[in-house]
């Protein structure tokens, strides 16, 4: 891009800046112009020609020169925004300043002494923009920079198509221009799709990269437990001070959701044309999720009839302007808008799956993690969107890609974050009855996945993938087991007919989790058994008729239930069980799980390549903090149990007994691996053994086992089809205990997950921005960069 000459001049200017110990006057235009006026340097050039060590040296040794450089670069952007960038030269200056600031900003943020610099006022830069020297009126540099970027993103012939009919017309006045008429892409609230323009896309992308860099100050602050730290850059940019907030929000959302990487529907088309849209779409997705980083647990948005009222009632909000991007997102309500968003996200999430059965037919996109965060935000901030997603089987177009990613990433330590967000989304969806109902749709799309072949429904797919994660994922996924099983419990009352493969997987998990060594080796392991028993009870009580496969599997594995009922509690037995623990910990046994052959064309899940970079994540809250319990009443409505007094009878509800203070404490102190500090006692085992909800299953076995045995003896049967036929026509009406109320554990927003999302999102952005490597080798504090 840049000629050798201009690179040389630019490099000379950088060297002069680092070697000048005397402050250079801000008025010395001849000196400052060398950085942007006469050069054509690409962003890659700027990163190469301005080494980190030199930026730090200027910062330490001649701080006033660094300050002037930033101030002058912002001033040039402000001038470009004021004039409307009509000449090629002005546009070049704007891009050069934008690249330079993208390079320098992270080094301003990493030094606590400099952090306030952009929020200090510069004399003479009045809010009126006329440069009046009235200091009351002066704007902080950060505000001037953000407003200039916003203006430049709707600059005719630079970042948007001009609406002028001819060149004779006077240039559009950038101040009177209604940017809502210049939205970048058709979709939500805008019907017109402008002609694609490569140059405009590139210019938008560079400005968005600078905007993202401004927002990235958050990376240089350690994770705060209260998560209330508001990002001042995002707060200002998404406030009413930014007159382009609505069109920009709409442009970003529509650009992401309208993107079709297939290349206009023609397979293999991407091999002929380079796709310049993707970098813009990625940048748009990243900027969008950062502007939506808003802790919904602490903000004023009580839900009333599924609508967020936070937009109308801001009184309870922390002082300061409301985030307009969150506000707009929560107020989208037209069906066709929801359809456009859902279809777009589903199309992009499914893109890597297309790759597996039509290799290279489409361009493979890499920003699925940003899309998952965006989908999460949509569901979290806009309950009407969540209900729309669950209203039809379209939700399965989101479910299948998520299960694909979970299965594919299960052995890869560098993708723990992806595993978590996928599971969080499914936990959120599983709190709604419709999700369980939708899972009954037969699964016919054959995406090659490294799982046993089965014939069945989407519920079977979910159970088979979860079983695979639990039995053959890596150790760091153990904290997710509670979440995975909670999802299965939430959907279980609605599952009409499990396949034999899925039924066997559930019993295999019960078998693995109810061994004495596993139950006694950590304070919370027995909860997994409670969850599985709850699944079986829900299906037997509410969906007995179609579930002969599960009933048959329970009968075949009846010894597991008898062992649980007779769990030893005496000290010698505990001691003996724990002898197992002295061995090196191994993943759950796969014996008895009858792994069938994997699907054709699938590749096994593989660990990360040694040396892969990953970013650390904060711990996620335990399942008791992550969810709140609700009871489903006769008419299908939910009643929260959190405020109600806890039921006393364990038979009513084994689960309500769980999260005691002591248990939380135990959970903090012990994990399956670091179990050194904790030892089980007889009293402890008795305290929960008596609450195991085995009544329904024992009654089922008592009634059905003699009948099944009689058939086998009478007919000399070893063939299971005959037994299954008998079970299909059997009934337990009047023989089982009174059905228990259905308990749903719904995800609830909390500051712990808000902080987790912040670290995860910035970690993804850090790792994905490698060309140029915006934050690489700077002193980030929000997470650690680790090598696998």
Architecture overview:
With 788 residues, this protein is mainly alpha-helical. Helix 5 (63-83) packs antiparallel against helix 6, helix 6 packs parallel to helix 8 (198-215) and helix 16 (396-409) packs antiparallel against helix 17. The two termini are 36 Å apart. 45% of the residues are buried. It holds the Pfam family Hid1. Residues 297-316, 580-677 are annotated as: Disordered. This is Protein HID1 isoform X2. It comes from Bos indicus (Zebu).
Largest β-sheet summary: 3 strands, antiparallel
The dominant shape is elongated
Total DSSP helices: 32
Strand order of the largest sheet: 7-6-8
The count of β-strands is: 9
How much of the sequence lies in strands comes to under 5%
Span of the ends, CA to CA: 36 Å
Helical residues, percent: 40-55%
How does the helix and strand content classify structurally? mainly alpha
Query: What integer is the average pLDDT?
Result: 83
Protein name: Protein HID1 isoform X2
InterPro entries: Hid-1/Ecm30
Pfam family, one: Hid1
Organism: Bos indicus (Zebu)
Quick overview of this protein structure:
This protein has 788 residues and is mostly helical.
Question: Any descriptors?
Answer:
788 residues, elongated, 32 helices, mainly alpha, two-stranded antiparallel ribbon
Ordered list of secondary-structure elements with their pairings:
Blueprint: H1 4-19, H2 29-32, H3 43-49, H4 52-61, H5 63-83, H6 88-109, E1 121-126, E2 138-140, H7 141-152, H8 198-215, H9 232-237, H10 245-258, H11 277-291, E3 303-304, E4 307-308, H12 324-331, H13 335-357, H14 368-381, H15 383-391, H16 396-409, H17 416-430, H18 433-438, H19 458-472, H20 481-491, H21 500-513, H22 516-519, H23 526-542, H24 548-556, H25 558-565, H26 571-579, E5 613-615, H27 623-626, E6 627-632, E7 638-640, H28 661-669, H29 682-689, H30 695-715, H31 720-729, E8 742-747, H32 751-768, E9 785-787
Antiparallel strand pairs: 1-2, 3-4, 5-9, 6-7, 6-8
Helix pairs in contact: 1-4, 4-5, 5-6, 5-7, 6-8, 7-8, 8-11, 10-11, 10-13, 11-14, 13-16, 14-15, 14-17, 16-17, 16-19, 17-20, 19-20, 19-21, 20-23, 21-23, 21-24, 24-31
Pfam families: Hid1
Protein name: Protein HID1 isoform X2
Region (Disordered): 297-316, 580-677
